[in-house]
Design a protein that fits this description.
By secondary structure, the protein is α+β, with helices and mostly antiparallel strands. It has 1 helix and 7 strands; from the N terminus they run αβββββββ. The longest helix is centred in the N-terminal third of the chain and has 20 residues, at 3-22.
Length: 124
């Protein structure tokens, strides 16, 4: 077998082993909690770690009065502009996140309700 073919086979074997070693199993992601969030009908302008701006969701818990910027994604959730969304999400902890990434992974568990903004009726 020629040196070039042998080198190519060794190189391919090393690349395959490196690719397998870099794959993370979902067994490394651990459940943390369930959260109920309300998602605002409009997005906010957020600033990334690199200094650039991007659109992000605004969320709050049902008992909170103020909105916070939510820069992660929620797997399975499709935001619709103009609607409030009340959702339940599973929050999973990522044990070794990238330096510029979140240590949380959000998965939609269920859409509780979706509604259009309307006038606030006091006393209900």
């Amino acid at each position: 077998m020629s040196h070039t073919i042998r080198t190519s086979k060794v190189w391919c074997a090393l690349m395959f082993a490196a690719a397998l070693a870099s794959c993370e199993s979902t067994t490394g992601v651990m459940p943390v909690d369930y959260e109920r969030l309300i998602v605002a009908p409009t997005k906010a302008t957020c600033t990334g770690w690199w200094g650039g701006e991007f659109d992000c969701l605004q969320v709050r818990t049902p008992t909170a009065a103020t909105w916070t910027e939510f820069t992660d994604t929620i797997e399975g959730f499709t935001w619709e502009p103009g609607y409030f969304h009340e959702i339940e999400v599973r929050v999973l902890r990522i044990p070794n996140p990238p330096a510029d990434g979140s240590d949380r992974y959000y998965v939609l568990d269920r859409l509780v309700r979706k509604w259009l903004p309307g006038p606030v009726v006091l006393g209900e």
